[in-house]
């Protein structure tokens, strides 16, 4: 049975990013993240949410459940938007999402 640390490591390697990059994107130290992968510590709920978003999996999957199969396939454009957003700092990402939501509301 895979531990949470095993899953986090597998997800990180699939994404082909370093522990340092994961830590930077979710706002923790590399040391803290490395402890999650070796099962020395458990992430708090807020960190789990950030990890699930970063790796595009459910919280349930990270903590030991089965992967959720999306009903709708993700388009290449959606993947590109996610990559762009993931490359931004938290404040810029929030501003960008707020702008996108404003544009979408104008269409209603």
Give a written overview of the molecule.
This protein has 108 residues and is mainly alpha-helical. 66% of the residues lie in helices and 0% in strands. The chain has helices at 4-15, 19-26, 30-37, 45-55, 59-62, 76-86, 90-106. Helix 2 crosses helix 3 (30-37). The radius of gyration is 15 Å and the shape is globular. The protein starts with a helix and ends with a helix. The model has no long low-confidence stretch (mean pLDDT 87).
Count, helices:
7
Q: Which class do the helix and strand fractions yield? A: mainly alpha
Which segments are poorly predicted (pLDDT under 50) over 5 or more consecutive residues?
Answer: none
Please tell me the overall pLDDT: 87
Number of strands: 0
> What is the strand content?
under 5%
Overall form: globular
Helix content: 55-70%
N- and C-termini, Cα separation:
47 Å
User: What order do the helices and strands follow?
Assistant: HHHHHHH
Largest sheet: none
Taking Cα atoms only, what radius of gyration do you get, to the nearest Å? 15 Å
């Amino acid at each position: 049975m895979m531990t949470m640390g095993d899953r986090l490591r597998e997800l990180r390697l699939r994404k082909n990013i370093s522990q340092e990059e994961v830590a930077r994107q979710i706002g923790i130290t590399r040391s803290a993240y490395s402890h999650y992968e070796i099962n020395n510590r458990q992430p708090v709920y807020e960190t789990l949410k950030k990890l699930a978003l970063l790796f595009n999996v459910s919280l349930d999957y990270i903590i030991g459940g089965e992967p959720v199969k999306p009903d709708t396939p993700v388009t290449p454009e959606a993947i590109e938007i996610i990559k762009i957003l993931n490359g931004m700092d938290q404040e810029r990402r929030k501003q960008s999402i707020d702008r996108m939501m404003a544009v979408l509301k104008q269409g209603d």
